[in-house]
Design brief:
about 200 residues, alpha+beta, 4-stranded antiparallel beta sheet, two-stranded parallel sheet, elongated
Length: about 200
């Protein structure tokens, strides 16, 4: 950690317009990583210095970056704001990376159980993405009361990405096809990203 600080200080003495940080937190313990990230954030804000950060650690990107580019075998396959990269990834690789970083992969044991447990009635598996103030709404209660849909929450997670709260919920909606469609249309009207993962 101290060596990283010295390297950063040395780079700043030349008054650069861009600070290149190649794996600035690699091989550091969690506390030193937090300290270096806080230092880089302070440099960015106080000096107005653009930082180009190269890393394999998506937690670093979530905490520090405003924009990101994803490289695959030397090719830039996606770029955009951090919020867009994590909530609406465009490529399958970016989707895999962000789902791992946000712990969004539905365990196979749950997916297998869903296929066998719900043979009666129609059920829809949905992933909902809440951004900012949308995460404060009592959505599941509303769906159950207003649309006569049973909601089974299988997975939920809240993350802070660049001071913005992002929530993910994977749930199973059970009811008539009309009730489920009406519930999904209501959710979409709230600007909550709705991704149907499948029907069981």
């Amino acid at each position: 950690g101290q060596k990283q600080r010295v390297a950063i200080a040395r780079a700043l003495t030349t008054k650069p317009y861009l600070l290149l940080c190649d794996e600035a937190t690699s091989a550091l313990d969690p506390e030193s990583t937090r300290s270096i990230l806080n230092l880089l954030k302070a440099i960015n804000k106080e000096l107005g210095l653009t930082i180009l950060l190269i890393t394999h650690e998506l937690d670093v990107i979530k905490r520090l970056c405003d924009r990101a580019g994803v490289l695959d075998e030397g090719h830039l396959i996606e770029q955009g704001s951090i919020i867009d990269i994590f909530t609406e990834p465009k490529t399958s690789m970016t989707k895999r990376l962000t789902q791992q970083a946000m712990h969004l992969e539905l365990p196979s044991i749950i997916a297998d159980r869903l296929r066998t447990d719900f043979q009666t009635g129609l059920a829809t598996l949905v992933r909902l993405t809440f951004i900012g103030n949308n995460s404060d709404k009592p959505l599941m209660t509303t769906l159950a009361k207003q649309f006569a849909v049973d909601v089974n929450i299988l997975q939920a997670n809240l993350e802070l990405v660049q001071d913005t709260t992002i929530g993910f919920t994977v749930c199973q909606l059970t009811g008539t096809q009309d009730a489920i469609n009406n519930a999904l249309n209501y959710v979409r009207s709230l600007s909550i990203k709705t991704e149907v993962l499948g029907y069981v």
